[in-house]
Amino acid sequence: MDEPVVKLDNVWKIFGDRSQEAMSAIKERGITKPEVLSEFGCVVGVQKATFDVSRGEIFCIMGLSGSGKSTLVRHINRLIEPTEGKIEVLGRDIGSLSSNELREVRALQMGMVFQHMALLPHRSVRDNVAYPLEIRKIPKSRRWAISDHALGLVDLVGYEDRLPRELSGGMQQRVGIARALASDPAILLMDEPFSALDPLIRMQLQDQFKALVAQLQKTTLFITHDLDEAIRIGHRIAIMKDGEIVQIGTAEEIVMNPADEYVREFVQGISKLKLVKAHSIMEPVESYKGSLEGAPEADHKADLDQIIDLAVNTEQPVVITDSGKPVGLITKPRLLRGIQGGKE
Amino acid sequence: MTPSTEEQDNGISVTAASDIEVDHEQLDISIAEFVERNPDYYQNVFHKVHAATSPLPNTFNWAAALLGPIWGGFRGAWGFFWGFLILEMIVWVQLGRGLWGNPGAKFEERAEGQLEKAAEFKQRAEEALAAGEDATRFEKLFDNMSTAAERSLTEAQILNDGKFMVFLTGVALFVLVKLTQGFYANKIYERQYSKWRIDPEGTESGVKLRNLVLSLVLVTLIAPLTIYKFTVESPFELLNQFPEKEISGYFLEEENETLYTESAKWLEDRIDAAAVAGQGLFDGLTAGVRSVLEAMTLALIVTPWPVVMVVVCVVAWRAAGPRVSIFTGAALAYVALLGYWEVSMETVALVGAAVFLCVIFGIPLGIWFGKSQRAYKIAEPVLDLMQTLPAFVYLIPIIAFFGTGNPPGILATIIFGMPPVIRLTALGMRGVPRTIIEAAEAFGASKRQLLRDVEIPLALPSIMTGVNQTILMCLSMVVIISLIGGGGLGQEILIALQYAAKGPGLLGGIAILLCAMVIDRIVQGAFRREI
Lengths: 344, 531
Known about the structure:
The structure holds 2 protein chains of 2 kinds. Chain A has 2 domains: 52-267, P-loop containing nucleotide triphosphate hydrolases (Rossmann fold), CATH 3.40.50.300; 278-340, Alpha-Beta Complex (CBS domain Like), CATH 3.90.1280. Chain A is 38% helix and 22% strand. Chain A contains 13 helices and 13 strands. Chain A has helices spanning 19-29, 33-40, 69-76, 99-109, 125-135, 140-153, 169-182, 199-216, 227-233, 251-256, 261-267, 304-311, 332-340; strands at 6-15, 43-53, 58-62, 84-89, 92-93, 110-113, 187-191, 219-224, 236-241, 244-249, 297-299, 318-322, 325-330. In chain A, the strands form 3 sheets. In chain A, strands 6-7-8-3-9-10 form a 6-stranded mixed sheet, with helices on both faces. In chain A, strands 2-1-4-5 form a 4-stranded antiparallel sheet, sandwiched between helices. In chain A, strands 11-12-13 form a 3-stranded mixed sheet. In chain A, strand 7 (187-191), helix 8 (199-216) and strand 8 (219-224) form a beta-alpha-beta unit. Chain B folds into 3 domains: 24-238, no CATH class; 242-283; 296-530, MetI-like fold, CATH 1.10.3720. A two-stranded antiparallel ribbon of chain B has the order 1-2. Chain B starts with 5 loop residues before the first strand and ends with a helix. Chain A binds chain B through residues 77, 79, 102-108, 110-112, 114, 116, 118-122, 131-132, 134-136, 179, 183, 189, and chain B through 433, 435-436, 438-446, 449, 453-454, 457-458, 460.
């Protein structure tokens, strides 16, 4: 892929009056988080965050509450100033922008969706969606047209003139998404957008959102505390713990090779059937001594669910092929272990 | 019921609530830490207090009963200390009056004087007799005086007999207070213990020598003097009156000057100097206020009265509906028919000018205070002062600085009326949800856009409440400013007050009331529509 859209390089955030002193103490003496708290009275919000997000990617940041994920994402539009480190968005160093330039980048390049919607209660749905455009002083006729189009994208036609409080939670969040899309930004920042919604609505919105982003090709940073949501939506997932990114990878990588005990505990309850692909659990063809005559075949990109469909009707292993050539096979014991998540 | 405690696989034991045993061990350690002295006793009584099912006390603390407030001070229970110190004081005063007090002293004194007079009359009578004159007049007087003296003596006797009753009630009260101390000491101390568990830093615990000494000193300072003053018939003069003259003399070494006259003179000089120094500024302010007032007056008084009436009624209709409009019409009719039209309009102009100035200065100040915590911290005492300082107090410097008449009156009204709109604007600004502000910032809003599109609209209900409060405050003040030459209905009432003219006073009062109600209804109706 080309130049990353968002690039974070060793970003630190320390909260407190003496954050700079604490930062230099960390750099010189390498003191730990509790020491920073007791020595300087400062809280480490984010530590050494480094990652790239490429164009059109949905990058999920997953972590429990207090893990610093919301803080991290607010660095990207500089709602929070980093204590240390560099943030580049579309090749521009965000930290070096003047306040006017920053406002422009926020208005043109980034749309943000919040957990608690944060709609303006005294404005109609249409005027809420149009607000980012109004900030940019776009004339009313144009604003309204764009806003109606954005509301169409989230399936809210007919609600333009209502007030936010007249809408349900799920609908309000769709207004929030439409507002973020209205200025056609390159980047979407989603701060736990679906967390406050009930599960059914959440699932619907996740699917709708995924389709929308795929269609519009928006680079998205998506914060969630729900691993299922991260797996369903994200191309890649970063797992945060205590302000630190513990692991970055695709859903399959994280589920199959958790970086540490913390991540392992997280992924334990996740269903592997749709996640794990055949090639990651197959064994060499030579290791099987019996006959492979009439054994079922599957592509190496098939997921466990499909392998199970093939394996139930036969005693033989499933042969895994890559462009027609056998590259490996999966025996029943291997398959069962794979479902468990690669336990040996 | 079978015992329902079962060990489960995961090692968590589940117990039915009814089977849970009270575990005293942890509690005892903590109680011992709290009381420091005598832990065994307090562990025992606290358990009893905890086990109590009725609100009545179930323990008795001998130490507390005997030592009373000193026990409380020693244990750091200062509420107990002060409460029972006052109660014990009442008891001791009662006992002292019963034991060595002299309730009949006043009558005895009187009887003595009367006896003296009687003796005098007797002597005069004897002298008259000796001189061969008619002595019946003196004899009569002597008889009367003697009877009066006798009556006074009986009165004194009755009072002195009643001394025993006073003593008896004293004893009864004493027993009652001691019992209360004993019975409630542990309950009160247990409450302090519960508080201490939550806030060990901020709650006194254990026994401290410092507390003991402090309570002893307080008791010895307070008790003897008080008991002495209450029980002895003529205590030292010093206890009756604060010796401010003597102290003044000590400081100033001058016979006629007191601290009071000195400070008053000093302040007066300062105010006069300030008035002279700031003349230009004060005149400018007065001129500014006057121009606002003149615009208001022009609109309300110079405009023909039918036009004003119709406009007010229509505004009431548009803002608050037909009912308020009818009420407004009736109120205007009352005012006009009683000949109050012009003065009422002057009152409304005064209020209008004051409110206008309050709003155009108060809302920006409120916005500032809502955004800057530090500015608000500084401004808050000033706002408190503006609201609580009695109007009569600042009317005087206002006269000194601005003279008399309507514009100074409006300034006084502004001082009184501005705080609510400032406060409520600041409150509204602080009440704007952080998340919505953050959202606007995330979409690139500038500070000005944020204020215009987000903060002010969301704070508007609160701001409107503030404006309404300010209007009502200004209306109540507009009567008082008649004291410094403010016109309008206030002046009518002031005149009525000076002549104790009940009828005109009441009619004028009702006119003010109607003005206030009309303005309030219209404004409230308009706000309700707004929100």
